[in-house]
Amino acid sequence: MHDFPFFQKLIEEEIRNLSLPEQPSELYDPIRYMLTLGGKRIRPVLVLMSCEMFDGNISNAIHPAIGIEVFHNFTLLHDDIMDKAPLRRSKPTVHTRWNTDVAILSGDTMFVQACQLMLKTDQTCALPMMRHFLETAVKVCEGQQWDMSYQTAPKVSIPEYLNMIELKTAVLLASSLKCGAMIAKATEEDQQHIYDFGKNLGIAFQLHDDILDVYGDEQKVGKQTGGDIIANKKTYLLLKAQEVGTKDQQEELAHWLTVEKFDQNEKVKAVKNIFEKVRVKELSKEVMEQYFNKAIEAFDKISVASEKKSIVKSLAETLMIREK
Amino acid sequence: MHDFPFFQKLIEEEIRNLSLPEQPSELYDPIRYMLTLGGKRIRPVLVLMSCEMFDGNISNAIHPAIGIEVFHNFTLLHDDIMDKAPLRRSKPTVHTRWNTDVAILSGDTMFVQACQLMLKTDQTCALPMMRHFLETAVKVCEGQQWDMSYQTAPKVSIPEYLNMIELKTAVLLASSLKCGAMIAKATEEDQQHIYDFGKNLGIAFQLHDDILDVYGDEQKVGKQTGGDIIANKKTYLLLKAQEVGTKDQQEELAHWLTVEKFDQNEKVKAVKNIFEKVRVKELSKEVMEQYFNKAIEAFDKISVASEKKSIVKSLAETLMIREK
Description:
Shape of chain A: globular
Oligomer: homodimer
Distance between the termini of chain A: 27 Å
Number of helices of chain A: 16
Radius of gyration of chain A: 20 Å
CATH class of the largest domain in chain A: Mainly Alpha
Number of domains of chain A: 2
CATH architecture of the largest domain in chain A: Orthogonal Bundle
Largest sheet of chain A: 2 strands, antiparallel
Number of strands of chain A: 2
């Protein structure tokens, strides 16, 4: 069994060795740029780890693993245009450094290349895995659309929010694990279990992110807390506070969500104050833990010896306590 | 053997019956809108005609045929954003009627759906056909990038231009025919011949378009001629005139390409005057006919009885003389 850094290194090497054409450079330079911006490479590592856990041949999984990473970066590239994000990993985004047209088209090309990489595997599983990958891709697009729609929606319910983060974030993590299992020819049941593990872990992971943005240790998280509050982002915490708050608290929240000129510190302090009164941190952690437990429950059903499962399980645990 | 209108009707029916999800409506409404804007449905008809010509089962080809049409419409949707086009088939473009974000994301989703449709066929050919389709998709993206780059490039050579229209337009026509042949299990040689037929026909077709924009019958073409001249579009005609013109003529062309305020009729008349002096219409027609002949040469090599080939051949001829 290999650990996270081992697989991470393998992925970085493969990405460095990806042979992209030189021309047209305005198409391929942004792709090279995007793929070497870094990142934790969690999704491709999950493909490889899952494949190894099910006794599969890693060499059949390496290209699909890169395919999922290329797909993930394609979604980031197009999302950055939609979010008008100037920076990604402290570097200019593609649409800022080049322009929107270049960002659209190199994103499109990345998606084609992701599909090509998904097919570079054992022929018996290429087709079912491709089908599964495309189903996932549709869900990710739907998740992004819900996310955009909710930004301007007057009201978003908690089930709607949970469905959105499942589609936008969790299914690709789940799918990464399932692809590894498919390549290793795991049973249908085990494929489903590891998918459910990834999906629930992904939702827990996103809820954790929401919590960290308000309550994280700024040094460990690597950014100032309160960013979501300042930006009026509809996180689980905000939606929950809107749901359980008293009428007065709801009105105060509505005020902070609509006021255009404000002192950032004052706004964060005021909203956090309401959060505390309605115990939103505890309520959020409770739900996060429910999803985490569901994930572990699914994982425990997988019919693989526990010593082979330990690395994936401990990775899941590490991810959840990372910057708490 | 069935004719063009028969297949066209079949395609229209299939597109009407495509069951797209209702929600999120901002994702799927633009897709429905785009797919029902109309068009001649040439590409999917080519898939079906080619399949039938090689004695294949049409029912295995119908979904991939729609897949190619969905892919084609995805490229139009994203191209319209890049070209800032307000209208498509006299209706508002998606990014105009909705917005750019919606256009990017519903385009992405269309591409995923195109891939899903390509896989809905006989299992023995789904994988090789998918590979071929993805190779084509990369070429189409490259063609679009060259087209964008050439719009601002100081100088574009004729080989560069021909390569661009091959990638942007011709390979998808070629690929449509090849997919039909693959589904019908035609020999590798015949697959190559019909691909070469489509590719050369596609280039001839685009050159024909360039000629029609200047010399077409306005009533038959359905739009005013001279549009490419007014927009400084680097067509075969312009590039050829720049190549073969005298120094004076080159300078006059350069003037019309850079002057910002001008009378449209005067510009068209002046440029057409140079075109006539250097016989650019005749030179363009010559090259167009060379490509058309190459197409027919490849087609004649296909080892299928000529009575089965006649419909595809006559379609090719009809397309070339359509609005002349």
